[in-house]
Amino acid sequence: MTKKNIKIKDFKNIAIEDKANIVDTIVNAYFQTDKDGDIKYTPYFSKVGQIIAAAKYIIDGVIFDDNESIYSTVINDDEVNSLVNNILTLSEFQSCIDLANDIVEYKKAENIARIQNDANSVVAYKILKLMEKEEEKAEKEAETIDNLNCWINEQRELNSLITPELQRDFAKNFNPDSLTDAIIKKYSESDLYKKNQEIIEANRLLRERDGKIIDLENKLKKK
């Protein structure tokens, strides 16, 4: 620190930029960034910010060195410290403190809103994932029910092949061969048989097509 004819500046002659710097210096003391980059609320440094602002922008005839701790220098220098204490009691400086306090309250509300938004985003994401899982579960349950209904319908069609008349004939004249022939005949005439034949034929055509594609690919590889 270099001193020469130090004195307190007249607030009327302080530039608007310096007044803004006074307020910003006090405000910045309330918020510190830790090593992880997170912003911490540090109101216990408010007095430090006031002392630094007063010494740096309101005292004339003082020049602080680069990387010098202004706070430590001020409190260890009786002359400068005395002037700073006088500045802290001035109504004009108190107006700067009041303005800084308004900005601090705004920043606190802003940070709280940001934290809440971040928390809400996390909750919304988790709810979305839960809904997706529930939707997937519901789709699988619906698919299972559809498969079950298809199986039940097929069983009903199979059961319908053995009519009461066929059962009576079987009871009168038990003949395993004739019963088998009758069931096969009924089955071959049923819609279920036709549907199964269509499926079998479609699968055969698909296999033939796949075989032709594989043969063509092998020929192309050889060429």
What would a concise description of this structure say?
Helix content is 75%, strand content 8%.
Describe, in plain words, how this protein is organized in 3D.
This protein is mostly helical. It has two domains: about 1-125, no CATH class; about 160-220. The chain is built from eight helices and four strands, in the order βαββαβαααααα. It has helices at about 15-30, 45-55, 70-75, 80-90, 90-160, 165-170, 175-190, 190-220; strands spanning about 1-10, 30-35, 40, 60-65. The strands form two sheets. Strands 1-4 form a two-stranded antiparallel sheet. It has a two-stranded antiparallel sheet with strand order 2-3. A hairpin with a 5-residue loop joins β2 (about 30-35) and β3 (about 40). α1 runs antiparallel to α2, α1 packs across α5 (about 90-160) and α2 packs across α4. It is rod-shaped and about 130 Å long. The chain starts with a strand and ends with a helix.
SSE order and pairing:
Elements (H helix, E strand, L loop, with lengths): L1 E7 L7 H13 L2 E3 L5 E3 L4 H12 L1 E5 L6 H6 L2 H11 L2 H71 L2 H9 L3 H14 L1 H32 L1
Antiparallel strand pairs: 1-4, 2-3
Keywords:
223 residues, 2 domains, 8 helices, 75% helix, 8% strand
- Rounded Rg: 45 Å
The shape is: rod-shaped
Low-confidence stretches: none
Question: How many strand units?
Answer: 4
